[in-house]
Amino acid sequence: MHIAALLGSISQNVGGPAYSVRRLWQSVLRPGVSVTVHTVNNMGFDEQEGDYSIWEPVECRLWPTQGIKVLGYSKTMRDGLLKELGGKRALISQHGLWMYQGRMVNQLREELKLPVIIHPHGMLDPWALSRSAWKKKVVGALWEYENLRRATCLRVTAESELESVRRFGSKVPVAVIPNGIDVSDYERLPSREEAAALLPQLAGRRVLLFLSRVHPKKGLMRLLRIWKPLHTEHPEWLLAVCGPDEVGHTRELEAAVEELALGGAVVFCGPLFGKEKLAALSLADLFILPAFSENFGVAIAEALAARLPVITTKGAPWQGLEKNGCGWWADNEERAIEDALREALHLSAGQLRDMGERGREWMRRDYDWDLIGRQMLSVTEWVLGGGAAPTCVSLN
Question: pLDDT digit string (tens) for 208-228?
Fold first, then answer.
């Protein structure tokens, strides 16, 4: 079996999607199964050599684009896929929506008679659909609506995303398979002394950490408004905003910090990778992702694996935070986020550490990549061979 996976970018600066797609297909690999990832980098990030090497043994191919880059049109990619997939027992795995690859997938499905699995990555959630809605309607009418109707199967990461897909009107089978986390990557964080040497701006304070893409959907502007009264009550705490900037949102947040007079209560760290990322997790006491919409939220899984309790919203599918005693799952509004934060900030360091330990155990138990890889493999075998649908697949 061969799988051709189409992805907007493999750059680590993309954040969670690049990690989760990489580990998903690496976990599926075994004798008789091969995967090639095809990307056009329509997202504006420059891939580095390390972005390719970490995908091994999955092969990545970067194709040049023509025309409007954001759509990701690439004739050479289409020709390469025709050559790669022709005559093979194969399927196409499309990651993300509203790009030219959807039209290309439609064409390849017709020409090669191959099954297609589409991973929407939260792009059918109501909040996501409301952003640049007219552009999505145009692309949808031109090709993506048909592409979604003709897909063999969709794959989502949570029951809440399944509900969004059905609300959108999709009637095709949907596999519910979460992303995973490599808990062992967070087994040995740097000591606080080592971490402070790497990130001195976080040293000597209790740290509320945001570590994800800096994008409007992450809810950071409302977090700053919430932080205004809370930092006065808890001056020992520092809000650290870490992650790669998208659409110039960091500049907007910096202006808001100045307007709200939060200069000593907020620090912007920029993108963090490797040792610096682990240092931020080591220095943090509490993690927050106040997102309007998340289909999964890899950053949350990473924080839990690093023994940090988490605050997030019901825009993210993490109701298990409260069930497992390792965080807060707040209503998707400012007052509820503020209430959760106020409760968390009043807890002792020991109480927060105990919550973090419970979160790590939860990740180890339910989010192991080997388990998730087996689920994904069962779905790929089913769409190619038929028979009874795996238990993770919803047929209606």
Answer: 999 999 999 999 999 999 999
